[in-house]
Amino acid sequence: MGQTLPKPALRPFLPADVPILAAIFTASIEELTGDDYSEAQQEAWMAAAEDEEFGKRLAADLTLIATLEGSPVGFASLRGNDHIRMLYVHPAVAGQGIATMLIDALEKLAGGRGATSLSVDASDNAQGFFAKRGYTAQQRNSVTMGDEWLANTTMKKTLGAGQ
Prior knowledge:
alpha+beta
């Protein structure tokens, strides 16, 4: 018989989570975005985790932590009622449904808060994930991080009555 894999769980963000979430953030960028962004762009992006504003942004948003056996493996944050600000999953668990679980929860929470749609500024490597979930591209953006320009795409999804 096959082994039973640990079941992921969700919990709210705690201030003590900032160091581990910063590590997930940087590992995710370093290992999962190399096909879409240069090394210099990745380094500029990862530098955001070293800024004290990183923890403040997590605390200001509704941030959910995905855990496996109690250890954080991913996180997502909802700014206001209708904008996904962050979605990062540790590369070791990428493709195992963690991001889907996080976004499912944010979509339900956004709907519960009265949002009729949800938007995200998706990195180039995340566009496919959001497109499969019904998000459509609205516009391309260029964002300055340090001395680098990074591109992303604003994507939007209309939330149904069942959200």
